[in-house]
Amino acid sequence: MSEIKKLPKREEVAVKDTWDLTKVFATDEEWEKAFEELTKLIEQSATFQGTLEKGADALVLAIHHMEVVNRKLETLYCYASMKSDEDTTNSKYQSMSSRAGSIFANAQESLAWFEPEILSIPDEVLQDFFAENEELAFYKHFIEQITGKREHILPAEQEGLLAGVAEIFSGAGETFSILNNADLQFPVVKNDEGEDVQLSHGVFGQLLESRNREVRKSAFEGMYQVYDQFQHTLASTLSFNVKGDNTQAKIRHYSSAREKALSQNHVPESVYDTLVEVVNEHLPLLHRYVALRKKAMKVEELHTYDLYTPLIEDDSLKYTYEQAKEKALLALAPLGEEYLSHVKEAFDDRWIDVVENQGKRSGAYSGGSYDMSPYILMNWHDSLDQLYTLVHEMGHSIHSYFTRNNQPFIYGDYSIFLAEIASTTNENILTEHLLATEKDPKVRAYILNHYLDGFKGTVFRQTQFAEFEHFIHTQDAAGNPLTSDMLNEYYGDLNARYYGEHLTKDAQIALEWARIPHFYYNYYVFQYSTGFAAASALSQKIVHGTEKELNQYLDYLKAGSSDYPIEVMKRAGVDMTRKDYLVEAFKVFEQRLNELEEILEEID
Ligand SMILES: [Zn+2]
């Protein structure tokens, strides 16, 4: 944390280490020209309004217009925000980026009539349209995604009323966010160097990983002391947020908030219930992991603040960027020649912005639009974790590449439900490769622990969140008030059930619900767990399976949004309405837990 490094200025970074955005717009003047063109196109949107019912040809024309607008918009927007990410202090790109945001909003507004107008056309008439015009048949899935909501759309007058009060439904979440990010004052605690540091959400995460127990403990206690003080307010914001979800579901004739949320992606509720059920069946594995951690750390009592510190130091495995590229190509080889050729392209054709420079946006992401290369932003430093990040983002980028090159624009994206599967599968393939090649027990222990911690934080923890989220929605729907006492009691018990008897029951953890922003995301977190488990099953098929199984996986990467996510995954070989893929994932977790137990026993 106290490491002082002199970062290069953006213009000092070697060209080969930067992404090549000149392929998108040769100059910023080209971007300005495109901006002008798009502004004119957006003005034309109104001429299509009210034409859809005239017939199949008119409908096709309107869809084409919408596609052109969105396609140009994405490229314009991505270029500006990526230029701005290169150096967030650059005011020219800040301004381009905010102009891109405004034109984005204008474009959406100019096309807002499209969905209601489609919904105003009776199904029989639409069926005639499909039969009439071959090109329209191609947009069938796109239109069905809109008409699928038909029974949940209200008469125009009521829709108007709802639109007028829409903001109120997000009020509680907004208040939580302002309180949590701006107003709450956290105490000053000591860091590893014994210096005073102001506790914040980011600093809290870092201090919990400290090897100094006192540092972890005081961060943990300091954080929860604040949530303890505000628990009644936070129960109120959460409660009103849940009421908002439940009320909207009721108004729109859904049987529950969960049905409403999951139906956006056409995900059956059984996927959610199956996840919770199978994870619960496998909680003894998490209990064993906790017991192992307690033993390895040689502590009398294992507390919540002992769960995040690394069990094994990673200093034995460091990769420079050049070494990481080689390793990535070796590790990802089971994905086949076609896949690998695009990974090489990513390295050779400057898809990647590699090194950190002054003002650069932190972290890593994969981005780009339909008409661009799927660029990757990194802030490289030599470590194994960065190699994992590289193959993760590469997973997103090759998924985007395949999708964009095999699907028309209208189906050229993919939902969040599918996105993390491609990236996590790559991470799992890397783990397989490292475990197949590294012999040193300490190195193996580090890799195994990296995997187990990832699994714990994703499959177990996010399912725990999912269970809690469903509980609060059903309780509210049944008329039971969500008081802080009630939330604390349920969450404390839930946490104890997940981690088992080897974890000491810290009173503070019962308040964890109060600080998790995801509980305001409306049934979002379960996708992290299902995605991780699906990726685990898929990587096994890719590394140890048949060519047919590999091709099925590649088909998923090429499918985009041409079908509903559950159907796309079925074709990839994973049926997420059944429990098998979860059971497979837990088998891998168990094998790796067994090996880590053995190694730690020997090293000891
Ligand atoms: Zn990701």
Automatic annotation (TrEMBL):
Binds 1 zinc ion. It is an enzyme of class 3 (hydrolase). Residues 207-587 form the Peptidase M3A/M3B catalytic domain. Its cofactor is Zn(2+). Its EC number is 3.4.24.-. GO terms for biological process: peptide metabolic process; proteolysis. GO terms for molecular function: metal ion binding; metalloendopeptidase activity. Residues 117-186 form the Oligopeptidase F N-terminal domain. It comes from the Bacteria. Keywords: Hydrolase, Metal-binding, Metalloprotease, Protease, Zinc. InterPro entries: OligopepF_N_dom, OligoPept_F_C, Pept_M3A_M3B, Pept_M3A_M3B_dom, Peptidase_M3B. Belongs to the peptidase M3B family. Has oligopeptidase activity and degrades a variety of small bioactive peptides. This is Oligopeptidase F. It comes from Pilibacter termitis.
